[in-house]
Recover the amino acids of this structure.
């Protein structure tokens, strides 16, 4: 019995075939694509002990792409029409295996990315604004973002407007659309990602300074006749983290303001004094991120969020951004040379009796110009991309401050808001 069993097993082992395979993840067979067709595939072999040497892509019997190794990720520009494509592997023993696909290329399909621009330096998360078109009669199914060949974000539909976390360093990022006919289109970007460092929970930090501002010139004063204000830290009743800060304004003089400021770096800072003057001049990218609880939108004239940088040499940069809620109903940015607000056209729609998430991304350019990049409110990102020159300050000024300002309305009605999870990221 044993002899017969061993003989049977030996015969079975001789008849077990050895395999080489090519697995093609993209394109799909019968899929419809834009002129830039994404290819993703991998190969294995058990017929050659030395393994897979390289892989390649044939388009209509012509070899268009090769790469060493057991996998490939590439986008090939292919003309409009129906095409036969073959993905092949070649092993070190002289063998080869293929997998074929039939695809349709429709020049009406594509991905357009308005932010960020390829080659840009961005923080993390980075603002992505993109849209897609397709020749598929059933439309776009979804869009996504790949970071280092890993899918990190997906949204349904043909529009993308969001913040996407990215890995630090120089990254090859791909924005892709998938249509309802099995096709896809991509747009590749090269981004320099510097996630930077973060100062967290600034609303609960020490070092806050407070002033009033009276119209028409809005000169700071403390005390001030006609405007009152109050700041109370470490609030738990209205809070996301258990450590919110309450800001209140009142008084008798219409359109008076309350300004709250914290020197987070440099002179007067209890957070990062930077006494060696070695940090602030090196910083160029800033993200102001906070949650604001608005108790009464009907008396909230405007909310202002500022980042001020003084890197030395008499250079001043005031990145001022305000939600002009009861005025234009839109976001404004500050021209610190001309001393005036500049409308952006981006709407500012506050949630009443609830938390509003505000994220501002700005950059000090190499010539010290101020670049307002994006405003994100409650999940919607608006591209600003407006540049302003710096202004002159006393040469002794050095450091960085952040401001929050609460503006009074025509009746100087009493008003209260809360800040929580107030973070600034810098690099």
């Amino acid at each position: 019995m044993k002899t017969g069993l061993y003989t049977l097993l030996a015969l079975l082992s001789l008849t077990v075939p050895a395999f080489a395979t090519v697995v093609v993840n993209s394109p799909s067979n019968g899929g419809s694509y834009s002129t830039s067709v994404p290819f993703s595939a991998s190969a294995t072999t058990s017929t050659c002990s030395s393994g897979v040497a390289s892989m390649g892509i044939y388009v209509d019997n012509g070899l268009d792409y090769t790469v060493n190794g057991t996998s490939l990720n590439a986008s090939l520009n292919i003309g409009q029409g129906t095409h036969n494509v073959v993905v092949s592997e070649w092993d070190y023993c002289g063998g080869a295996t293929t997998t074929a696909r039939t695809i349709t290329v429709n020049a009406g399909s594509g991905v357009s990315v308005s932010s960020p621009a390829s080659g840009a330096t961005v923080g993390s998360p980075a603002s992505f604004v993109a849209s897609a078109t397709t020749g598929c009669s059933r439309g776009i199914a979804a869009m996504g973002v790949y970071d280092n060949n890993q899918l990190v974000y997906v949204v349904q539909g043909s529009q993308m407007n969001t913040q996407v976390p990215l890995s630090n360093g120089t990254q090859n990022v791909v924005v892709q659309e998938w249509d309802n006919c099995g096709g896809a289109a991509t747009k590749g970007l090269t981004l320099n990602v510097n996630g930077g460092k973060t100062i967290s929970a600034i609303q609960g930090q020490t070092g806050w300074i407070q002033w009033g501002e009276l119209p028409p010139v809005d000169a700071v004063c403390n005390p001030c006749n006609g405007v009152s204000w109050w700041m109370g830290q470490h609030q738990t009743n209205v809070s996301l983290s258990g450590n919110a800060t309450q800001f209140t304004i009142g008084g008798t003089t219409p359109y008076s303001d309350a300004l709250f400021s914290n020197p987070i770096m440099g002179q007067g800072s209890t957070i990062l004094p930077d006494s060696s003057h070695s940090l602030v001049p090196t910083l160029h990218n800033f993200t102001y991120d906070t949650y604001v609880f608005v108790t009464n939108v009907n008396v909230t004239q405007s909310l202002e969020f500022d980042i001020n940088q003084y890197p030395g040499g008499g250079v001043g940069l005031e990145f001022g951004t305000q939600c002009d809620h009861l005025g234009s109903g839109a976001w404004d940015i500050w021209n610190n040379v001309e001393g005036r607000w500049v409308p952006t056209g981006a709407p500012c729609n506050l949630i009443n009796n609830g938390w509003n998430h505000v994220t501002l991304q700005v950059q000090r350019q190499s010539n010290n110009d101020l670049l307002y990049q994006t405003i994100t409110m409650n999940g919607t990102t608006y591209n600003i991309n407006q540049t302003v020159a710096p202004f002159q300050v006393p040469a002794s000024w050095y450091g960085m401050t952040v401001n929050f300002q609460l503006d009074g309305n025509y009746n100087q009605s009493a008003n209260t808001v809360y800040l929580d999870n107030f973070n600034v990221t810098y690099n």
